[in-house]
Design goal:
Layout (H helix, E strand, L loop, with lengths): L3 H11 L21 E5 L2 E4 L4 E4 L14 H11 L10 H13 L5 E5 L2 H16 L3 E5 L16 H6 L9 H5 L1 E4 L4 H11 L3 E7 L14 H11 L3 E6 L10 H5 L1 H4 L5 E4 L10 E5 L1 H4 L18 H13 L2 H24 L4 E6 L2 E6 L9 H5 L6 H10 L2 E2 L16 H20 L2
Helix pairs in contact: 2-12, 3-12, 7-8, 13-16, 15-16
Length: about 425
């Protein structure tokens, strides 16, 4: 039998680190990466035939669970007609209309292939529409791996302990102003000092790449107020939260009731139902700066790929109110079970939770986690033993303490019970670490 170790050994001779995305290499948790070969419902199966309850969900897209019948049927029907044409086709408008029906502020939509492409294009569009150069981002917020946005990013960069990335020039870094998340005074100061040259503030709707960190009350409203007052754009990165936290993403849980709307949204993950799709959306007058109606260039051979559009349409059509209610309920059960197991083992921690998204931070009960500095200061050495104890018991967690946990509509009582049964042993492993 071919083992996970065999596959990883081969992969390391072919790909840098043996992976195509760094966090998959298990660098922060140690051990051999698991090579998955099948996903069904809430479960993954690896190359050795071992089944796991999945709490990664392809890093978010698997809202309905793996291989949902409606999504698979839509993909099969589309594939039979061709994989792509390099032309316009009806499914592009079908998905765009679904997005706009859920998020009215998405007046126009441009389909792209990845979240990185969506945020990269949003930045270019903001600069083109405003005629200004500087972009403000928050430490620990991850907006993809485009050069100007890798300053103090979270996610894989935090996992690897890197401050940024080699290959990013000083000129590119200079055009990005990085401040601490949830720091109202710092944000106000930035606009006082640079207001005439700020094109945009980009923020994760609720950060989930330094662990889940909730925006403090009124913080997103402050971003909206300051950008509007100073002629800058507010870019709301919902690549992770879009159509997952609610049917209208995090904006649907906050901005809609509070009466504010960003200028631009970026969506990804759920919008493609597991296939490579993302989108940039927002105000019509801003979006019309994009080519071919405006001077800001963007193009993509695979933008709006029909197979990916079909998966996205099927996913959103089946993401009903009942789906969100189910995921919220099961996420709360797992989060409560996690807290109880860690408390019983005497492990200091906080559960960082926004809607159905949550993460674990060790040694943080005195302060919680409100920004990147506090996320980095946690006792992250406890996560590796915790992770492997869960893995050994057939539960697949994100291989980084800085990532969110994802449940799906397919996580039934049996799957959740398996998670809960595994938690006490993992909590003990965390307690014994160090």
């Amino acid at each position: 039998m071919t083992t996970n170790q065999d596959l990883f050994d081969t992969a390391q001779t072919l790909m840098p680190g043996g992976v195509n995305s760094p966090v998959r290499a298990f660098g922060s948790v140690g051990g051999t990466p698991v090579s998955m070969v099948e996903g069904q419902g809430p479960y993954l199966t690896d190359a050795e035939g071992k089944q796991y309850v999945d709490l990664v969900g392809s890093w978010g897209p698997a809202l309905l669970g793996h291989s949902h019948p409606a999504v698979m049927d839509a993909v099969r029907a589309t594939v039979e007609k061709g994989l792509g044409f390099g032309t316009s086709h009806p499914l592009e408008s079908d998905l765009a209309e679904l997005v706009r029906s859920r998020v009215p502020g998405a007046e126009m939509i441009r389909m792209v292939s990845t979240g990185t492409e969506a945020t990269m294009t949003a930045i270019r569009l903001a600069r083109g529409a405003t005629g200004k150069n500087l972009v403000v981002k928050f430490a620990g917020c991850y907006h993809g791996h485009s050069d100007g946005l890798l300053a103090a990013a979270g996610s894989g960069v935090a996992t690897l302990g890197l401050p940024g990335s080699a290959g990013v020039t000083e000129a590119q870094a200079w055009e990005t102003i990085v401040i601490e998340y949830n720091d109202r005074e710092a944000l106000e100061t930035v606009f006082t000092e640079h207001s005439g040259n700020i094109a945009a503030v980009i923020t994760e709707a609720t950060p989930a790449n330094m662990g889940v960190v909730a925006p403090e009350p009124g913080f997103n409203q402050l971003i909206r107020d300051l950008t509007a007052a100073h002629g800058a754009l507010m870019i709301f990165d919902e690549v992770m939260t879009g159509f997952r936290i609610t049917e209208a993403g995090y904006w649907g849980a906050s901005g809609r009731s509070e009466g504010w709307t960003p200028d631009l949204f970026t969506f990804g993950k759920v919008i493609g139902g597991g296939l490579p799709t993302a989108a940039l959306a927002g105000r019509r007058d801003v979006m019309e700066h994009l080519a071919p109606t405006g001077p800001v260039y963007h193009a993509g051979t695979l933008s709006g790929n029909p197979v990916a559009m079909a998966a996205g349409v099927a996913t959103l059509n089946n993401a009903t109110a009942e789906v969100y209610e189910h995921i919220d309920l099961k996420a709360q059960v797992v989060a409560d079970g996690l807290a109880a197991a860690l408390n019983d083992a005497g492990v200091d921690h906080t559960i960082q939770k926004v809607g159905s998204l949550f993460s674990l931070a060790f040694g943080t009960s005195a302060t919680g986690v409100h920004n990147y500095s506090e996320a980095q200061a946690q006792e992250s050495f406890r996560y590796g033993p915790f992770f492997h104890a869960m893995l050994d018991q057939g539960v697949y967690l994100p291989p980084s303490v800085f990532e969110a946990w994802f449940l799906s509509a397919a996580h039934d009582d049996a799957a959740v019970d398996r998670i809960l049964r595994a938690l006490p042993q993992a909590a003990k492993a965390a307690a014994d670490a160090g």
